[in-house]
Structures are given as structure tokens and as C-alpha cells.
Amino acid sequence: MKAVIMAGGFGTRIQPLTINLPKPMIPLANRPIMLHIVDLLKRHGITELVMLLYHQPEIIKNFFRDGSEFGVRIRYVTPLEDFGTAGAVKAAAKFLDETFLIISGDLLTDIDLRRAIDFHRQKKAQATIALTSVSDPLQFGVVITDAQGRITKFLEKPGWGEVFSDTINTGIYVIEPGVLDLIPEQSNRDWSKDVFPAMLADDAPLFGCRLEGYWADIGNTDAYLEACRDIARGRVEVTIEEPLLAPDRRIYFGGESSVENGAGAVLEGLVIIGENTQINGRAVIRDSIIGRNCTLEDGVELNGAVLWDNVYVKSGTRISDAVLGHNARTGRKVTIEPGVIVGDETTIGDGALLKRNVKIWPRKVVEADATVTTNLIWGERWRKSLFEGPLVSGLTNVELTPEFTARLGAAYGSTLPRGSTILAGRDAIRSSRMLKRSFVGGLLSAGINVRDVLTCPLPVLTFKLATFGEVGGVHFRQSPTDPAATEIVFLDAEGLEFSSAMGKSVERIYFKENFRRAHHSEPGGIFDMPGAYDVYRDHFLKAIDRKLLSRRRPKVVIDLNHSPAADLLPGLLNELGCEVVEINSHVEESKAGTTPEQKALFLEQLSRIVVILDATAGIWLGPSGEKLTIIDDRGEVLSDLESLVALCALSCGDNDGGRLVVPVSAPSVIDELAARTGLSVERTRVDGRALVEAATKNGTVMAGTLDGRFAFPALHPNFDGLFTVAKMLEMLCRTGSSLHDLKQVAEHRHYLHREVPCSAEYKGGIMRRMSETASQLEASFIDGVRITHGEAWVLVLPDQFRPVVHLIAEAEDATTAGKLLEHYREKITAWKKTLEQERDLRP
Questions:
Q1: Among the three residues 720, 747, 774, which one is the final residue of a domain in this structure?
Q2: Which residues span the membrane (predicted)?
Q3: What is the DSSP string of 145-192?
């Protein structure tokens, strides 16, 4: 016997799940719905199938092909027009020369098809409709039969006053070929509305066979979620491809998946985990289905959730009775309430709340801390920028994929002169190598040559750019704040971080896909840079007082973090006469970098070693060699602020004149130190490029940030953690200072920093009101608005990329600083409420 599977519907009622998929291909227990129907037919001995397609037919064809992989034989029929349920079957008439069965491709059922077939033959029917009982028949076609099963009446989606039965049409029919003669060629006809009523009017042998078992029409998102719940409750048995973990538990694990049970992960009820999915930390998963290649971070809670393939859920997120489509991703501490449907490739920011039954169409972006109360369908917010300052960053192999970075490389190369050369380097993380290689491929396609310095500290790359003739550079590294993310640092011809205008030039080409393609005979070339370290080493040694360090022999303990700097820094310090104790100095290609938790443990270990060895200092060097964390001679870890003040104090004691360059947010104790020693202070915007540009001016002795980056123009004006170590030791020896004493300098005043949540649409209004407030006070507008109140000051600075406003205050005592911070926090909160009210009143 043959079966016809109806698989041509648009699936409008179940959007957004069907935006990118035909409804029969929606995953159910990690398998397309229609594959469950194929399994049902096979169990009843039906292996000759005709699939009727219309909407997105290629997706179905590419999956099932000729059917041999699934133990069936498939023919496809794709009508040129939408001919309705019966008209489409008429289009397949040439394949239907015997009794055949019709079934919908979007049902979930386990009813006995053989019983319907036997009933049909016993009654010698022309057509038999499989019937079942449901509690709410209003949304279905009710069928009335007599005692012999002959159909006497149809009620298509009746009202309650018309309902005389709970028996409905399941959409499963057994049909004789002669019935197709009732359907005109290439005409739109429906079985329930046209063909069956006509047969009933002609008193044709039309029967209904009532069947027991599970049956569900997955016609909308609520029905889809209910079907998933029914699978979890065991109301219907389906094929689950993932192997069963243990016979006494309903936990199914795909190949190469992992769960950190030792970390406290909890799995309860029916849990299906697709291939290559990683469950990390203390995740709690109940009655949930997780697709392939998904990642769940620590503290994620899933209750009745359905995650399709390639979903990334960050720590602390809670999802209840909701669906996340392919390639969706959430930030940290997101809450998704029951009934929510998140479309494919949608990104949800940190702390967002998606209220009950909200539907989000594919490729949307939900801002961090947003509360979504209505469906997000139109006006989708495409990602407007790739760059955050000089960086392009994202989740490795989720947001930053080889495909993405190849296109980004082509876009960057298209902004450069044909035949020019850039430098390319990376840290020792394996994913950085993967993404750099694809990026370089994009550059070559645009006719750009690449000098590849392989694994290389970022300061060596910036030094090379500042002293030679390449037109720019890129460095790939693991994000220091998120081990699952990669950062691509873009540099100009002088080794400075990309400006906003440079980033926008790349973005324009990327989004317009206006890539320059080199002729097949003129792609760029790749060249090694074996001598990059040598020039850097020579200049490094000349910029430090070797005699002083050789005489004083300071002892330093350095955690080199398995970074490329391990091949360079210890040898330089030894040659200068320092005693160096190395930790994690073996350079190795790592699958994953250092997490913040691991860094905390390394710092604790480093502190103990500094005390035991009575060392001058301890250093934890960032993996790219740009940032560092300092430990003083008593084993106390300096914060980034304390490190900036300590190095400024050292520079003041080591120089008779000159200029310190610091961001506008730096503490005022730096100005006091400079004034006492004859140095000046230049304050700039907080971004790294502004600081380095100021550092290139004559007379600059040091530039520093509040995130652990320092530049000493004695070698080059770019940030350099390697040279900072040597220069710090030199200044400590010359001044006779100790880091512990210098650490106390930062504690003379009280410095507070708080982030106030604020979406981008309100930042401008808040800064306008802040400027109005500052007009009657002593204020500066270098970056944000900084207002002086006697000996105290406060800075209100909107974050360039995140939905927050930075609020920084400094005063002589903690009480004054706290009151000042709270005063302006209340102002910002009140202004934000006013702006929200104004928005709600807009027509």
C-alpha cells in the first residue's frame, strides 16, 4: 500500500517557527515532525511514499532524498500552484493506482493505521476518514456517523450549539483511486469542504473509523509546546535517536555531549540532549529537549524548555515552557517565561525579561535589561555595528565563525590599497588560530599581503607597526572577560587602535557586501616574520638602565599565563640583571584560555610565592601581553586603580619634568603627585586610542588606563605589559620605593564607581540634563560630564557600547563620596523615568 504525506502548507499559524522551515520539518524530540510520521507508516508496513510539497520544498527534499536512508521509497510531487488538500493529491494521481492512505506531515500520533485500512476494506468504502475523540472539538471538523460507521454529516469548525459529537476528522484518510476522478485537473479542491461533502450528497460509500490513541494537530505554537509536554509526560511514545543514559532514568545523551555532574548539574524527568551539546556547571534541567551543538553555562535552569540546534545559553538564565530556535543565544541572567517563542538567530542581552507568550521573529536583537511584553515582528533591529572601539568580539564559533571572519577579512582588505601589507598575530588559544586563518583568507581574496607573526605578544605587533611600514594589523585573542569569546583587535599603520571612522569604513563594506575581489592571478600572499622579536628585543634593552638593574638585581615573580610573552620577557629581564621566577612559562597551544576564576586562584598562588621568596614584585601577565596585574612586595594584589596611581607615583619620583597621560576618570591624587614633583597631567577620553595619541606627544613619560594597560614612550607609545614590568623595576630601584608604600597613596582619597542601567535611547536625554545641571557649576566635558564639588568630584559617563551609565565619585572621605554618588544616581534614575514617560506619551 502507498501513503501520501501532505507537506505543502505554509505553517502561518505556527510562526515564527516556520519562517525558515516548512512546518513538517519543525524539530520534535530533535527529529522533524514528518520523520515521526514516516516511522509510523513503516511500523504499519507502508514504505511506498508520495510527498506533496509546496512551501520551501527543497528543505524537505534535501533531508529525505530518495528515502532509502529511512527504509522507505519516496516520490515527490510539487504542484505549480496551491491546489488545496485534494487538488494537490490529484496532481499525484499517476502514482496512485491502488488503495492509498493520506496523512498530514505535521501530526503527532500513534493511532493504529492498520485498523483503519482493515475497516475500509471490510466496509468496501470509497473513502474512509480516521476519527478520534477530543475534549475541545470546536477548532476541528466534527464528523457524525451512524451505527455502521457510515458518515451522515459534517460540521466544519462548529459552534457549541452545533456540536453533537466529540468525534473529529484526524486528517488521515484511506482512499480508492476512483475518488480522484471527482477532482478536476489543476483545480483548488479541499477534502473536507469539497470532495467529502460531494460524496455524501451522492450517497457514495463514505465511512468514518473511530480510533483510539494519541493524536495531536501541531497547528500553532501552543500545540507544539503541548506536544512536547505530552512527550515528556509519556502520553505518546516517539523515536528518540539519542542513546538512553540508564535504564531507570529518562535521560537521553547524544554522542560527544557532556554534563558536569560533578559540578552539581541536576537532570530530572525526560531530558533529551543532542549531539555535541555541553552542559556546564550547576545547570538544572527538567523535562526539556536540547538540540545539537548547544552550550548551557553554569546556573542555567530549564523547565519544559525546547532548544533547537546551536543554541547558546549563558549563566544564570531561566527558561520555562518556551522554545528557542536554531542559533538563538541568550546573555547572562535572562528570564524567559512560559509560552515564549524565540526565532532563529535571535540574540537576547544580559538581564532581559521576556514576558509570557511573547513571540520574537528571527534575527532580532533584544537589548540587555530590556523587558519584552509584546511580540517583536516588524522593525527588526539589525546589528548596526560590528566594532566596539577597535574590537570585533563575539562568542567563538557561535557569533565569530570562520565564515564571519572570512567576510570580515575581505571587508577590511577592501578598505586598504591593493597589494599593501598588514601584520597578523594571535595568542596561543587554538580558536584564535582557527579564526585568524579564515580572516587571512578574506584578506588574500581582496589582494592584501599578510606578514604573519603567528603567536606573538600584542606589544611586539604594535611596536613593529610603529617602527616599520605596514598599513595596519590585527591580533586575535581570547576575551579577558569571557573565555567563550574571541576578540579581534584592529590596529592602524602606527600601531594605534582603530578609530571609529576606520571601523565604520569596514562595516559599510561588510554590510553592503561590496567586497573587492582580486583577479585569480593576483591574490595576496602570506609571509613569515621570523625577525620580529629581534628588533623589539634590541630597542627594549636600550630603553632600560641595564647597569642599575644589574647592580640592584630586583627579584620578580611572573605568571606568564602560557602566553607567547614567555618566549621573550624572562630572557630580557635576565639579560638586564633581574632575578626572574617564572610560573606557567611553557608556551602551549591551549584549547581554552584562563577563566576569571582560574585567574583568581593564580593570583592567590602568586601572592604566596612573592612573600615566600621576598620578591620585589609579582606580575600576572595577560595572555596578549598588553595588560598586567601587579602584586606588591607583601603579597597584596593591586587593583587596576592602585596600579595606575602607583606607576604614576613612580614616574613622578623618577622624572624631573614631563607629562602623565590618564583618562578623565582617573583619581585626582595623580594631579596632586604631579604638582608636587613638577610634572603635568593631561586627561583624555577613556578610550585607548585617545590615550596613546596623547602619549605620542613629546614630553610624555607615561600613559595609563584604569584597566591595567600602560605605555612608556621611552620604547614606544603603545600599551606594553612586557616593557611596563622592566620599567617598573627600574623605577623602583632608582627611587628606592616599595610597591606596598605606593599602594597606600591611592588610599588617601575614596574613589567609588557604580554602573546605572540605561538603554541607548535615554543616554542622550540624560546627558542633556546633566549638561544643564553642570552649566552653573565647575565642570569639564572631556568625556562625559565631570563636576567638581570643592575637594570632591563626580563623573557621569555613558558607556559607548553597553546599556549603562558609569557614575564615578571621589572625595576625601567615604561618606562624602557615597553621598555624592547616591545624589547623582537618584538624579539619573529620575531623569530616566521622565524620559520613559515622555516616550509613552509620544503618538
A1: 747
A2: none
A3: E-TTSBEEEEEES--GGG----EEEEEEEEE-GGGGGGS-TT----II
Residue 583 and residue 713 share a domain: yes
Whose CA is closest to 319, among 364, 365, 286, 360?
286
- CA dist., res. 825 & res. 833, Å (int): 12
- Position 166 scores a pLDDT of 60
R_g of the chain computed on alpha carbons: 34
| Chain length of the chain | 843
Cα separation, 159 vs 531, in Å, equals 84
Cell triple for 731: 623605577
- Residue 512: phi, psi to the nearest 5? -85, -10
| Sheet of strand 526-528: strand arrangement | 391-395, 485-491, 473-478, 421-426, 449-455, 526-528
3-state helix/strand/coil string of 428-487: CEHHHHHHHHHHHHHHHHCCCEEEEEEECCHHHHHHHHHHCCCCCEEEEEECCCCCCEEE
Q: Give the dihedral of Cα atoms 680, 681, 684, 689; nearest 10 deg.
A: 80
Q: What is the tally of structural domains in the chain?
A: 5
Q: Are residues 138 and 263 in the same domain?
A: no
With beta carbons less than 8 A apart as the criterion, state whether 624 and 563 touch: yes
Q: What is the CATH number of the domain that holds 785?
A: 3.30.310.50
Three cell numbers written together for 193: 469542504
Which of these three, 503, 530, 557, is where a domain ends? Answer: 530
Residues 561 and 639 in one domain: yes
Q: According to the model, what pLDDT value does residue 552 have?
A: 94
- 3-state percent breakdown (helix, strand, coil) of the chain, nearest 5: 35, 25, 40
Q: Are residues 408 and 549 in the same domain?
A: no
DSSP codes, 234-245: TSS-----SPBS
Taking CA atoms, 641 is separated from 145, 710, 749, 798, in Å, by 83, 12, 12, 20
Asked if the structure places residue 227 within a domain, the reply is: no
Region for 820 from its dihedrals, namely left if φ exceeds 0, alpha if ψ lies in -120 to 50, beta otherwise: alpha
- Pair 18, 222: CB distance under 8 Å: no
User: Containing domain of residue 330, as a range?
Assistant: 240-372
Q: Which amino acid appears at position 151 of this protein? A: I
Supply the pLDDT for residue 156: 62
Q: What span, in angstroms and rounded, lies between the C-alpha atoms of 550 and 368?
A: 53
Looking at the structure, tell me whether residues 673 and 578 fall in a common domain.
yes
Closest CA to 278 of 292, 306, 258: 258
pLDDT, tens digit, 9 for 90 and up, residues 683-710: 999 999 999 999 999 999 999 999 999 9
Is residue 232 in a domain?
Answer: no
Greatest alpha-carbon span in the chain: 113
Give domain status of residue 582, yes or no. Answer: yes
For position 509, what pLDDT does the model report?
A: 87
CATH number for the domain spanning 615: value is: 3.40.120.10
Judgement on whether residues 511 and 636 belong to the same structural domain of the protein = no
Q: Which grid cell sits at 309?
A: 540546534
* pLDDT given for residue 840 in this prediction: 62
Amino acid in the structure at residue 606: L
In a domain, 429, yes or no: yes
CATH code at 280? 2.160.10.10
Mapping DSSP onto H, E and C, the string for 582-603 reads: EECCCCCCECCCCCHHHHHHHH
pLDDT given for residue 837 in this prediction: 81
Angstrom CA distances, 652 to 303, 356, 380, 638, 671, stand at 59, 59, 53, 19, 10
The label of the residue with cell 596561543 reads 428
Query: What CATH number did the domain enclosing 126 receive?
Result: 3.90.550.10
CA–CA dist 3, 42 (Å, integer):
10
**Contact in structure between 417 and 469 (CB atoms under 8 Å):** no
The phi and psi torsions of 508 (rounded to 5 degrees) equal -60, -45
CA torsion 433-436-441-446 (nearest 10°) is -160
- Judgement on whether residues 618 and 633 belong to the same structural domain of the protein: yes
